[in-house]
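Work package 3, deliverable 3.1, input record:
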Amino acid sequence: MDVRLTIDGHEAKAPKDMSLLDVVRRVGGEIPALCHHEGIAPIAACRLCLVEVRRPGRGEAVLTTSCDYPVSEGLEVVTASPRIRRHRAMNLQLLLPYAPDAPALHEIAESLGVTAPLFAPVTGAPLPGCILCELCVRVCAALGYHALAAIGRGDHKRVGPPFGRSVATACVGCGACHEVCPTGCIAMEDTATTRRIWGRELELFTCRRCGKPFTTVAHRTVMVARGDIPAESCDLCETCRSRDYARRLAPVR
Amino acid sequence: MTARLAGPRALTRYREALTRARDPGRRVVSVCVGTGCRANGAREVYAALRAQAEKHGVACEEQSRATGCLGFCQCGPLLSVAPEGIVYQHVRVADVPEIVERTLLGGETVERLLYVDPATGRPCRTEEEIPFYHRQQRVLLRDNALLDPTSIDDYIALGGYSALCRAFEMGPVAVLEEVKRSGLRGRGGAGFPTGRKWEACRDAAGDLRYVVCNADEGDPGAFMDDALLEGDPHSVLEGMIIGAFAIGAREGYVYVRQEYPVAVERITRAIDQARDLGLLGESVLGSDLSFDVRVSRGGGAFVCGEASAMMASLEGRRGVPRRRIIHLSERGLWGRPTNLNNVETWANVPQIVLRGADWFRSMGTERSTGTKIFSLVGKVNDTGLVEVPMGATLRDIIFGIGGGIPGGKGFKAVQTGGPSGGCLPAEKLDTPVDFDTLVAEGSMMGSGGMIVMDEDTCMVDVARYFLRFLASESCGNCTSCREGLWRLRDLLGDIAEGRGTRDTIALIEELADTVKATSLCALGTSAVNPVLSTLRHFRDEYLAHVDDKRCPAAVCKALITFSIDPDACNGCTLCAARCPQGAISGEKRQPHTIAPELCIKCGICRDVCPRDAVRVH
C-alpha cells in the first residue's frame, strides 16, 4: 500500500512503512548517513540522518532520525532546517576525531559547512578509524556468519570478534564487512594464496577457469553448502561466472 | 511440600490454620537484614540472637526472624520486638544476650539501645515515637517488619493472596477498571498510567501475552526495588498474578539484576513456594487462570532498565534500546503483547484491589496518587528508605523525615530521579514531589532516588560524577550519547581542573542540547539533566571555577590550597604525623605549615585537626 507524503514541500508516494531515509533518497533528496544500508535493518546509530517530521493532527514538527522512521500517510518532512543542520554538525563533530581522514566524513562535513574540527583526533582507539556504525557486525549477521559483535558499552564500546577475542573464528573471509565499512578501517589483505582478516589467515580459492584467486576456500565451501547458486558457479570468479551465465543463456524460441 | 490449594476457600482455611497456630501475643524479635543493616553486621546479630535464644530454650523458629529492610538504615542494624513494637538501633552482637534476657524473656526495654530524638532528647521506644517513621505513610514497606521474606506462610497469615481472591471475585474487567480508576502511575520513572498500559496490552491482538516485572534497579544510591523484593517478594508476585489475570497473560518474567543476589534468591524462592501452593501454574487457585513466572537475571547494564533494551536482553540479545514504532503492549517480548511494570508498581496492585481505588486516590495528589518510596541518601542525618504520599514536599522528606543536614551544615541541593535527574536548590525545597512538578522543575521522579547535598558539595563535581556514570552506562548505540556524554564529562573535568573558560560552558550547553535532542532512548535524552540543571541553578559556581579559578565548595583539588591558620594551630603535631606526603612541618607546640609543592590535597590534616586550624581556599 502506498502512502502520500510531502518532502520539503514536494509531494511524494512511497510504500507504507518504508524507511523515510530510503524514500527521500529515492526521490533524489540528500540526507547524510553513515550507518545505513538499504538491505539491513536500521539501528540509527550515527544520528546524522536527522529530519523533522510532522504527522497530520500531531502539532509541532519533531526531530527524528529518518533511517528507522517508517513513512505514513500525510507525513510532512523537512530534510534541512537550521536545527537539523546544527545537530547533524555536532554529531559529525563527535565522529570526526575517530576518522579525521575518511572521505565519507569529509563529504558530509562539507555539505554541513563544518570547516574546523571541534575536537582533536582520538588516538589509541581499539580499531582506528572505526565510528561504531556496526555495519560490519550487521552485514556479517545478515549473511549468516555472526563472526563479529559489538562489545562493551558506553565509552568502552567497540566492534570485533565476539567476547573480545583476537580472532573472529566464525569468519569465512567473505570481505563483506570490509566492503560496507564507511571509513575503510577494516583491514583485509590478500597475498598470493591467503587472505588476512580479523586475525584469521584463510586460504584463497582460485577460479577453476582463469586461475585468479577470488574468495576464500571457507567462503566457497559455505556458498556450495547453501546452494543459493549452482555449485559449479561457486568455483568461478565473477568475470568467469558472468561469461558462463552468458554462454548458458537458453536459446530464444 | 504442601498440597496445592484448590480454591479461594482452601486458601482461607489455610490462613485460618496458620493464625490459629500462632499466638498474636507471643513475643517475636525481628532483625533487619536488609542491605544497609547487612553491611553493618546484622547477619551476625541474627545468628547470635538465634544461638542465645536457643540457650534459653526459646522456640527460635517462632520467636525470631530475619526480615527485609526496615528503612531506617542510618541506625542499623535494627531490631524490632513484637507485639510491643520496641525498636532497637545500632545493635551489636555484644548486645544480644541482654536483649534476649531482658526483652525477649522479661518484656523489659533496654533503654540504651533506643533511638534518641535529637530534637527533644527523649528516647523513642517504638516506631511511632521516632520522627523518621511517624512522618511517613508506609503502605508498601509496612509488612517488611512483620514477615520473614522466605516464608509464604508469614505472607499468607498477614492476609497475603487475599487480594488475588478478591480479584477472582471481581473478574478481570473490574480489576482493570479499579487499577485504572486508582490513578496508579508507573513507579519506574516514566509515570505512565498503569491501568491504561494494562488495557492496551489486554486489547492487543495475539493469544500469548506476557507480564514483566522490571527489577533492574541501577541508579547509584537507590534500593527501593531491592528492599521490596528482598523484604516482601510475595507482594510483588501477587501483583503480577493479578495483572496477568486482568490482562490475560499466561507467562511472566522478573528481570532482576544479578548484583542483587539476595533479591534473586528471595523472588525465586517466592515463585517456587507460590507454585507449590497452586498460586502459580496451571489453574491458579482452581480458577481458569494459568500463569507462571520465571526469573531472568540481568548483567548489570543500567540501560537494560529501558523497556526495549530489557526485551532484547530477555530474548538473549544485547541490551540495546530500539525505536518502538509499535508499542510494547502490542509487540513486545518475542513480538507478543507485553506489559512491563516496575517492582513498586506491581507491589501497589494487591493493595488497590483489596482496599479499592478510592482509598488509593485518598493518598497523594490529584494526578499522582498513592505513596512513593524514596531512598533518601547523601548528606542527610537519617538516611534510609522512606515512603510518603505523593505530593509531600522535598522539605518534608529531607528535614521532616530525614532530620536535616548533619553537622549543622547548610542544605545546598537535592538530586531526585537517579543519575539523570536534576539538582534542585534550596529555593525549590517546597516543591511537591510528584511526577509532573519535578519534570517542570527540570528534574524528574525517576524511580525514587533522592541524594541530598550540603554546602561542602561542588556542583561541577556532582555533574561530573553523574556524567562519568552515564558515559560508561550508555549502551553506545547513538553517537550523541556515546560520544557526547564522555565529552561532556571531560569538559566538566576541564572546568574542575582549572582549564575551563566561558567558551567551555558555551560548548557544554551546545553539546548537551544535541545529546538531549538527538539520542534515541531516555538514557541519552535525560543524561544531560545533571549538567543542565546545575548550570541553571548554580551558574555562579561554574563561573567561579572558570573566571576566578576558584571552587567555592573547596572540593576541586586543582583549584584549592590547604594551609594552617597559625592563630588556631596549637602545634599538637597530629597533622604532621598523619600527612601521607610528609608535607607538614613545625615544632611541637608551635604553629605548623604545609608545603604546597608536596601537598596532594587529600584533606587528612583537616579531618584530624582537633582545633579546626586547617583552612582550604
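The longest strand of chain A covers residues 200-206.
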